[in-house]
Amino acid sequence: MKKIKNFGISTLRVEECFGYLKQVKAETANLPSEEPPAAQTAATTTFDSGFNAFDDALKASSTNPATATATATDDARDASWRGANNYLTAMCAHPTAEVAANAAEAKSLFDKYGDPTKLAQTEESGVLYNLLQDLEAFDSSKRTSLALDVWITDLKTKEEAFLAAAAARTEADAARQVGIVKETRTAAEAAYRSLVDTVNALAMINGDTAYATFIDHVNAMIERQKAISKARSTRAKKEDEPAE
To answer: What is the pLDDT of residue 13?
Structure first.
């Protein structure tokens, strides 16, 4: 008698689990469709519902409301850096030689690190951290002659706002991953196991002819996924082995 093999889908990665369940959902089209047993209808309905909830949770997790705030604060610090850099560029042409010299010295601090606004967000934060340290260590009398403190304060404030928004974004991502996604995945896995148990029971009671295609296809998927997991585990072990 044909039977769906045991498979611990809880060991799969989130995306792998979803992909596997999606394939199983497609294969339910191969289950008996004319006057199906009530147990089969109940199991497939529960499975479809669980899978759809898992799908919705994954889609929702890819849209983080905190991302918009992080993007806005990133744009604001970019504008602040450009404003300060452009201001010093203009001040280098100041008619007072001393002021122009002070501006050139301050501008050299910006030039040392280059334009950070084109870098990845975390890299930009690293550059701005170093730049702000240099600017705050810059001679106070020279800063005063340039009225530079207001620009430094603005850039520092904008950078701190971005860091806070980025931290909130990370926290929100983590919360969704361990929250609603985990909850709906667990329910979908339980619905899958119920579907497997139901099909196996019906195949044993009524004969496996009507269920053969579904069982064979799911078993092939299981073997394929096991092979992928085994290969990944083997690679991980090799990477952990000390070099000779």
So the answer is: 87
